[in-house]
C-alpha cells in the first residue's frame, strides 16, 4: 500500500482521581505517503495526545502504529531510536521547546550530535547552515539565542531541528497557533515548500478548521477521543457527513454583513472523557439523535469509497 502510516485501534487512557480518562479511544486512520492529513477538533478532544502516541512520546495504552508496514509499538529502545529519525514533531510553542541556554547552531546541531551522524565537526556545521538555509534563516543567526528571535524565526528553528535527521514523516501540533496571524501564512507556506522539496508526509493537528483547510489533502475530525469522520478535503467541505463536522464547518468565521442563519449552535453537555458512557459521544449535542445512538457506539466505517464516518444515521441523513 502507499500508506506510510496506519494507526489501528489506538488507545491512550490516563488514570485520574475521578476515573479513567479516555483521551484517545479506539482511533484508526491512515496517512498516504506525501500527503498532509489534517487532524481537527476542539481543545481536549485528544488530537495532541494522538500525535504524541503515534511517535511514542506517550506510550499507547493499546493498539497499533504501523509505520512503513512495521508496528512500532512493538519496537525496543534501539529500534525506536532508529525509527524516530524518520518520525519527527514540531510543537505549538517553539519557545518552550527550545533550550534557552543554547544558541541556534547548537540547537540545530543537537540531533546530529546525539545520533552521531557525522564524525567530522565541520560537516555538522555545514549541515546546520544547510538546514538554516532550507527554513529561511540567515547563517548570521548561527550564534543567536532563542530569546533574540521573534516567534516566526523560533518556529523556523524548530522546523530545522525536526528536519536535521532527514525524516519522512512530521507531526505538526498546532504549529502556527502561537504566532501572529501575519506570520502564520509564512510558516504554513514554508512547510508546504519543504514538503514538496523533500517529499515529506505530515500529520497536521489544529483546532482551527480554517488553517487545516489551507494545508490538508485529507481531514480527520476528532470528537472526545474518537475520529468521527475521515475524508478527502473536498468531500468534507462540500458535504460533511457527521453531524459534528457539519456543526464545526458552520462555525467557521467568515466575513459577512448579515447574521449567520446557517450557523448551527451546539447545545447540550459535552460529556466527560472520564469514564465515558456507551453510545455516541456526540449524543448530548446532536440534533438528530435517536435511541440507538445512546446505547450503541457508532464505529468508523467506509460509507462511500475513501469516506469514513462514525454515525448510525448517516444513510438517513444523506437522503
Ligand atoms: Fe448524532 Fe446519533 Fe449520529 Fe451520534 S450516531 S452523531 S447521536 S445521529
Ligand atoms: Mg493540543
TrEMBL record:
MF annotations from Gene Ontology: ATP binding; ATP hydrolysis activity
Instruction: Set out the biological process GO terms recorded for this chain's protein.
Output: peptide transport; transmembrane transport
All copies of the ABC transporter domain together span 5-249
Organism of provenance: Isachenkonia alkalipeptolytica
- ATP-binding: present as a keyword of the record? yes
Protein name listed in UniProt: ATP-binding cassette domain-containing protein
- UniProt family annotation: Belongs to the ABC transporter superfamily.
| Domain of life where this protein originates | Bacteria
Q: Which UniProt keywords apply?
A: ATP-binding, Nucleotide-binding, Transport
Amino acid at each position: 500500500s502507499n500508506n506510510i502510516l496506519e494507526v489501528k485501534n489506538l488507545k491512550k487512557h490516563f488514570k485520574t482521581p475521578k476515573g479513567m480518562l479516555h483521551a484517545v479511544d479506539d482511533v484508526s486512520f491512515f496517512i498516504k505517503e506525501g500527503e498532509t492529513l489534517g487532524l481537527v477538533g476542539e481543545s481536549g478532544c485528544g488530537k495532541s495526545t494522538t500525535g504524541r502516541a503515534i511517535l511514542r512520546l506517550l506510550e499507547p495504552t493499546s493498539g497499533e502504529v504501523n509505520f512503513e508496514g512495521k508496528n512500532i509499538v512493538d519496537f525496543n529502545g534501539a529500534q525506536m531510536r532508529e525509527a524516530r529519525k524518520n518520525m519527527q514533531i514540531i510543537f505549538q510553542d517553539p519557545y518552550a521547546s527550545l533550550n534557552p541556554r543554547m544558541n541556534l547552531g547548537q540547537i540545530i546541531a543537537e540531533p546530529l550530535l546525539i545520533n552521531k551522524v557525522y564524525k567530522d565537526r565541520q560537516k555538522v556545521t555545514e549541515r546546520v547552515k544547510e538546514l538554516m538555509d532550507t527554513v529561511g534563516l540567515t547563517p548570521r543567526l548561527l550564534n543567536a539565542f532563542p530569546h533574540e528571535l521573534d516567534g516566526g524565526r523560533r518556529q523556523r528553528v524548530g522546523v530545522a531541528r525536526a528536519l536535521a535527521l532527514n525524516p519522512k514523516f512530521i507531526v505538526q501540533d498546532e504549529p502556527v497557533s502561537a504566532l501572529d496571524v501575519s506570520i502564520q501564512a509564512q510558516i504554513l507556506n514554508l512547510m508546504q515548500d519543504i514538503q514538496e522539496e523533500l517529499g515529506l508526509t505530515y500529520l497536521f493537528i489544529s483546532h482551527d478548521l480554517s488553517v487545516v483547510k489551507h494545508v490538508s489533502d485529507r481531514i480527520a475530525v476528532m470528537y472526545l477521543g474518537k475520529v468521527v469522520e475521515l475524508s478527502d478535503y473536498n468531500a468534507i467541505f462540500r458535504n460533511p457527513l457527521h453531524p459534528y463536522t457539519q456543526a464545526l464547518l458552520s462555525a467557521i468565521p467568515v466575513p459577512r454583513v448579515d447574521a449567520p442563519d446557517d450557523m448551527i449552535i451546539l447545545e447540550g453537555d459535552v460529556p466527560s472523557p472520564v469514564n465515558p458512557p456507551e453510545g455516541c459521544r456526540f449524543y448530548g449535542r446532536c440534533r438528530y439523535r435517536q435511541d440507538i445512538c445512546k446505547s450503541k457506539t457508532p464505529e468508523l466505517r467506509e460509507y462511500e469509497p475513501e469516506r469514513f464516518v462514525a454515525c448510525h444515521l448517516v444513510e438517513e441523513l444523506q437522503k
